[in-house]
Design brief:
Layout: H1 6-24, H2 30-51, H3 53-67, H4 71-103, H5 111-120, H6 122-136, H7 142-147, H8 152-156, H9 162-178, H10 181-206, H11 209-223, H12 227-232, H13 234-259, H14 263-280, H15 283-297, H16 302-315, H17 318-334, H18 341-357, H19 364-376, H20 390-415
């Protein structure tokens, strides 16, 4: 019997997780059983992916930069990568604003429902507001200052400091380019081997993926708020999902226009990473799988994936920025505020910058949303309005974030002549020699 493809295994795990949770919820002890005995396996799976995130970025990015052999190649690829990420983010925010202004989901929220939601989630909202207060009070160049680590070991010990790890890896790779080849070769060979080990670990961890997403989805179902709250926020959720689907359409169009690859080829190649991003709500945790799929199934050479994707997992949050735009206007609508065109342009700029600074972990977008609300003069207490449906929407927007990273990597690869045919490797095979 032919073995089921990975993305079908993941889908099956997700469906079975939801069904299992719905059945267990019928029993009085069912929810606690899932929380105590099932959810930990989902947490273990996420931890395994996070475990190799920093080593993967260090190994792949140092290898990718040093393999360029020329600083001009780095500046060329880097400029196109950052430019495309900013371009797609602005498109995402604009789509979000168009959708939410056309549908006006805030008009469907009654005063009674709004009061109930604010009271139910006030504590959670307060914690997010406090977490964002430090960032709002920071100086204009604080984001730039935070990129440069004072201690690489401290930066590498926290997955929230990915930008610092990326900065170190890039300058380390540049250093390898600038020294004589015979001096750099032993270090490059080490990172080549290190990178292969990490890729093999990804293969091993992904064997556990169907079971991990089963546990994650089962826990999500039993921990969800009441259905009444979901129904009250249905139009808001619809706006976010519609905007995200439109953004996915934008990616497929851009890929087709610039690479001449069909939408079906692109979506089939990235599907397992999309599903993993959906179940983990973390671009950083999904990064190892994204890199593997883009290189092996979309034909992007390792020189590009090892540079573009780690940066994208940290600064390219198109789904997050789109959600922030929709959420900000939705909250304003529920409070009866009419945002001017100028204010909404400010939301585009703020959401773009906030998405760049947003950590690639579950729920980080909620913290950055506070900054967007403050810039637009929208009551921050309105943050509590969207807590009920934030987690499932977080899963959806992470899927878009991952898809955007893959799309940009294909376009950049095509522009520098590094896009070829897929080269899937077998379990016992090494990557083909470049």
């Amino acid at each position: 019997m032919k073995k089921l493809a990975l993305h079908w295994q993941i889908i099956l795990g997700m469906v079975l997780g939801v069904v299992f949770a719905l059945i267990m919820a019928k029993f009085e002890w069912g929810s606690s059983f899932i929380t105590d005995w099932i959810k930990p396996f989902g947490t273990i799976f996420i931890n395994l992916l996070k475990l190799i995130a920093v080593p993967l970025i260090l190994a792949s990015l140092i290898k990718g930069v040093s393999d360029l052999k020329d600083i001009s190649k780095l500046s060329k690829m880097g400029g196109r990568t950052i430019g495309l990420y900013i371009f797609t983010t602005v498109i995402a925010v604009s789509i979000g604003l168009l959708v939410v202004n056309f549908i006006k989901p805030g008009s469907s929220i009654t005063e009674a429902t709004r009061t109930e939601l604010v009271e139910s989630y006030k504590g959670d909202a307060d914690s997010k507001i406090a977490a964002a207060e430090k960032q709002k009070n920071a100086g204009p160049l604080q984001a730039l200052e935070d990129i440069v680590p004072s201690n690489i070991f401290n930066a590498a010990s926290d997955n929230g400091n990915m930008l610092q790890v990326i900065f170190f890896a890039i300058i380390f790779g540049i250093g390898l380019i600038l020294i004589p080849e015979e001096k750099a070769q032993p270090v490059k060979l080490f990172f080549d081997s290190f990178n292969e080990v990490i890729l093999k670990l990804i293969d091993l961890i992904m064997l556990f993926a169907p079971y991990g997403v089963f546990a994650l989805l089962a826990a999500l179902v039993v921990e969800s708020p009441s259905t009444d709250l979901f129904a009250a926020l249905g139009w808001y959720a619809f706006c976010v999902v519609l905007g995200l689907l439109l953004m996915m359409l934008v990616y497929t169009i851009l890929v087709f226009l610039f690479t001449k690859k069909s939408p079906l080829f692109f979506l089939n190649g990235i599907a397992p990473a999309q599903l993993l991003g959906f179940s983990t709500s973390s671009s950083a945790a999904t990064l190892p799988v994204t890199m593997e799929r883009v290189e092996e199934h979309l034909g992007v050479e390792e020189e590009v994936t090892s540079f573009v994707l780690p940066i994208g997992a940290t600064i390219n949050m198109d789904g997050t920025s789109l959600y922030q735009a929709v959420a900000a206007v939705f909250i304003a609508q529920t409070f009866g505020m009419d945002l001017s065109f100028g204010v909404q342009l400010g939301i585009i700029a703020t959401a773009t910058l906030a998405s760049i600074g947003s950590a690639a972990v579950p729920g980080a977008g909620m913290v950055m949303l506070v900054i967007v609300l403050a810039q637009a003069g929208i009551p921050e207490a309105g943050l509590a309005l969207i807590f009920a449906v934030d987690r499932p929407l977080d899963m959806c927007r992470t899927t878009v974030n991952v898809t955007g990273d893959a799309a940009v990597s294909m376009i950049v690869a095509k522009s520098v002549g590094k896009l070829g045919e897929p080269h899937v490797r077998n379990w016992d095979d090494n990557y083909p020699k470049k």
